[in-house]
Amino acid sequence: MAQNFDSLKQACRDQWQAYIQHPFVAGVSEATLPAAAFRHYLQQDYLFLVHFARAWGLAVYKSRDMSELRHSLDNLKTIVDTEMDLHVDYCRAWGIDQEELQNLPEAQETLAYTRFVLDCGHRGELLDLHVALAPCLIGYAEIADWISTRSQTVSVDNPYQAWIDMYRDEEYQQAAHREHLWLDERLAELSPQRFAQLTTTFRDATRLEAAFWQMGLDAAR
Ligand SMILES: Cc1ncc(CN)c(N)n1
């Protein structure tokens, strides 16, 4: 049977679930997450987005034809022109201004995750980089879906509603869908050995996403 993106998720089922349904995400959904946890997450996520934009820039650089290049460029634009602007506006609403964001010290979890992804890109091929980036782009679209289907989700007066809406937004969901299809096409052709190698990358990136949520929770203790 041909492998696809769902095969990657299946191979890392426990780690994927621990990321998508992390207590931080449940707290956002139920409006019970401590504000200090979310604030710390927002600050570090600004730094994260800067490095992830660089990683998509690296994917543009590593592309072999115009179709690959345009695909990575679209993802770079989603971060720089849409997600980052919304993020900065959102931080401002939480009383965090641009100057504060630019002068933040980088947390270990941010360093570990972002440099891991950049290293996958430098060391490997374009596909290694896309697989390392997938938990970020596709994972948040799935998280927004998970939140919207939960009966426990609070949708009236939830202080995190604007953040949830950012990832439920059609443009973000479509970018995640395009990446899903892009990966499905490339994963189908691989040898079992190559698929196993990419599974390790995907699992590690997923673990680093869960650690990023945990960093937010720990900041509120
Ligand atoms: C840590 C993290 N992972 C993913 C995303 C969604 N692009 C994000 N903003 N931050």
Report on this structure.
Belongs to the TenA family. One of its GO terms (cellular component) is cytosol. Residues 11-218 form the Thiaminase-2/PQQC domain. 81% of the residues lie in helices and 0% in strands. The model has no long low-confidence stretch (mean pLDDT 97). It starts with a helix and ends with a helix. The relative contact order is 0.20. The protein has a single domain (32-219), classed as Heme Oxygenase, Chain A (Up-down Bundle). It has 221 residues and is mostly helical. The protein contains 11 helices and no strands. It binds 5-(aminomethyl)-2-methylpyrimidin-4-amine. The site of 5-(aminomethyl)-2-methylpyrimidin-4-amine has 9 residues, from helix 4, helix 8 and helix 11.
Named CATH architecture:
Up-down Bundle
Supply the CATH class.
Mainly Alpha
CATH homologous superfamily heading: Heme oxygenase-like
Broad structural category: mainly alpha
> What gross morphology would you assign?
globular
Radius of gyration: 17 Å
Low-confidence runs of at least 5 consecutive residues: none
Instruction: Classify the helix fraction into a percent range.
Output: over 70%
Give me the number of helical elements.
11
Bound molecules: 5-(aminomethyl)-2-methylpyrimidin-4-amine
Order of helices and strands: HHHHHHHHHHH
Overall number of strands: 0
> What distance lies between the first and last C-alpha atoms, to the nearest angstrom?
47 Å
Question: Could you name the CATH topology?
Answer: Heme Oxygenase, Chain A
Please describe the biggest sheet, giving its number of strands, its sense, and whether it closes into a barrel: none
